[in-house]
Each structure stands twice: as C-alpha cells, then as structure tokens.
C-alpha cells in the first residue's frame, strides 16, 4: 500500500508496481486538492496516479495526459471564460466521466475504481475518503485552493477534514500493512525512480 500525495506518490507507485504481483498494490491518493472547474470535479492527485500507472502521464507539463490538445479550453476562452487552468481535452474527459458517475450516486471510490478499469490498471487507486475534504488558502484578498495557484499568506485549512473518514477498509489495510525499506529492492531491480 502506498499513500500518495500527487506526482511523487505516482512515481513511487509506478516504480513499485512491477515489483509486486499484479493486483497486490493499492494506492491511496490525496483528495484535499480536488476542486471544481466548469461544474466538473477535478481530482488531480488521484488522476496523476492513474495516468502515471497507465503510461499516459504528461511528464513535460507535470500533470494531465501526454499529447493532449486544448480545443475545449480554447473554446471556453473564446466565450469569455477564464482559461488559466490548463485542462486538456483527454484530461477533461476523465473529469466529465467522474462527475457524471457521481451524479448517478456513485462514490468517489467507485469512480476511481471505474477509471482504473477503463485505463486498464490492475493496481487499485483509491481516494483517501469519499467525503469532501478541501485545502483552502486564506489571504487578505480571497480564499482559494492549491489548484488556483494563490500564495498562502495567512495559512491553510483543510475543509471538513475533522469530520471525514477513510474509505472503508483503509484503516484495517493500513494496520495490516508493513512498511518496508524499498531501497535494496529498487536498487537491485536496476530501475531507478524517476
């Protein structure tokens, strides 16, 4: 089991995945950086892990899907919408699908597992919780999220973190998991973590 906070956790998962039997790795990804854009839930850390494990992560940009286009974003900009948050067309499709599944009453966990299946993954990528938890930065000018790239002047507060709970069975999985120092295993595999 890997606890992933984003691109670093995604890289670690990709390095460990070939070292364990298929289906034996679970990645629990951060959801505190999730945010809504144009009515769709963007879950950047969950998506970074899924995209990295599926081999479609955009290393050049550091997020999103490689070789993506931005036709939808460009059309939104022409219609007067702010287009500073660079969501590509393929990436946007993931957010549309997730939001549609949530609208049908599926949990964030069910959405993540469905996306894993659609991307052909055998590794389970789970959100840290099904409840809404958001990191918010408070400045004299505004409250914002990490995705909205505001520098933190007064600090940050996770929204509803106190009342959220881990996804079912995660606590018992964590309790059963043993932490192993992977340096020897990774070094002997000849595959450096990049």
State Rg: 17 Å
CATH-derived topology:
Helicase, Ruva Protein, domain 3
Q: Calculate the terminal CA-CA distance, rounded to whole Å.
A: 19 Å
Helix vs. strand class: alpha/beta
Mean pLDDT: 79
Which terms summarize this structure?
194 residues; Helicase, Ruva Protein, domain 3; disordered C terminus; 36% helix; 3-stranded parallel beta sheet; 3-stranded antiparallel beta sheet; globular; alpha/beta; 7 helices
Written description of the protein model:
The chain has 194 residues and is of the alpha/beta class. It has a single domain, classed as Helicase, Ruva Protein, domain 3 (Orthogonal Bundle), CATH 1.10.8.240. 36% of the residues lie in helices and 14% in strands. It has seven helices and eight strands, in the order βαβββααααββββαα. The strands form three sheets. The chain has a three-stranded parallel sheet with strand order 1-2-5. The C terminus is likely disordered.
Question: What would a concise description of this structure say?
Answer:
The protein is of the alpha/beta class and 194 residues long. Helices cover 36% and strands 14% of the residues.
Question: Which SSEs are present, and which pair or pack?
Answer:
Elements: E1 2-4, H1 7-16, E2 26-29, E3 35-37, E4 40-42, H2 44-54, H3 71-78, H4 89-103, H5 108-118, E5 124-127, E6 134-138, E7 143-144, E8 156-159, H6 170-176, H7 183-189
Parallel strand pairs: 1-2, 2-5
Antiparallel strand pairs: 3-4, 6-7, 6-8
Helix pairs in contact: 1-2, 4-5
């Amino acid at each position: 089991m890997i606890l992933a906070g984003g691109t670093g956790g995604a890289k670690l998962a990709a390095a460990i995945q070939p070292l364990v039997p298929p289906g034996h790795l679970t990645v629990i990804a951060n959801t505190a950086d999730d945010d809504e854009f144009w009515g769709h839930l963007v879950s950047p850390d969950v998506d970074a892990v899924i995209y990295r494990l599926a081999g479609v992560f955009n290393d050049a940009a550091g997020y999103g899907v490689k070789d993506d286009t931005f036709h939808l974003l460009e059309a939104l900009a022409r219609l007067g919408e702010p287009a500073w948050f660079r969501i590509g067309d393929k990436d946007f499709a993931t957010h549309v699908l997730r939001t549609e599944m949530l609208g049908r009453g599926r949990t964030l966990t069910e959405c993540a597992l469905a996306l894993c299946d659609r991307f052909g993954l055998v590794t389970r990528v789970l959100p840290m919780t099904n409840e809404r938890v958001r990191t918010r930065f408070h400045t004299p000018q505004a409250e914002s999220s990490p995705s909205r790239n505001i520098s933190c002047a007064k600090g940050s507060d996770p929204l509803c973190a106190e009342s959220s709970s881990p996804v079912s069975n995660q606590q018992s999985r964590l309790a059963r998991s043993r932490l192993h120092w992977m340096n020897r295993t990774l070094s002997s595999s000849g595959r450096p973590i990049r």
